[in-house]
Amino acid sequence: MRYRNAAAKDRGERKEPFERSARQHAHLFARRLLRDLVFADSDGLFLMLARNPPAQLLNLWNLVAQDVRQPIALSAEAFSAARFSYGDWGGRLIIFPTPLGITEPWFAIIVRKLSDQFKWISRYFLVERRGRQALER
Fold this sequence. Notes:
Layout lengths: L5 H5 L10 H20 L1 H9 L2 H13 L14 E7 L2 E7 L9 E10 L5 E9 L3 H5 L1
Antiparallel strand pairs: 1-2, 2-3, 3-4
Helix pairs in contact: 2-3, 2-4
């Protein structure tokens, strides 16, 4: 799955790997790949997370590592995921490795429910670590 700059792809260019590894690795994983999976293939994502979620999240993390110049090496224990339900909504809480800098993902919530027309309605929420100055205010 490619989630790269679509304009560069249309021009036939291959975008170079990102320079800043830690923040870009986490950014691509949480803000692009996971989000895209939620809206493009939520069935596949939920089925994948039903089988050993930490290992599956690590596989996705390593997929993103191919596009980052200096990827962050993690183990499966760095991720955790919990299933939950609330009314008609069911979902997963995904806990990322401890954020090192600002605007790195802390955890994500993926929820979905079956609509009256028997179509899945999916939502993706991402919580990021705030900067130290913002927390001191």
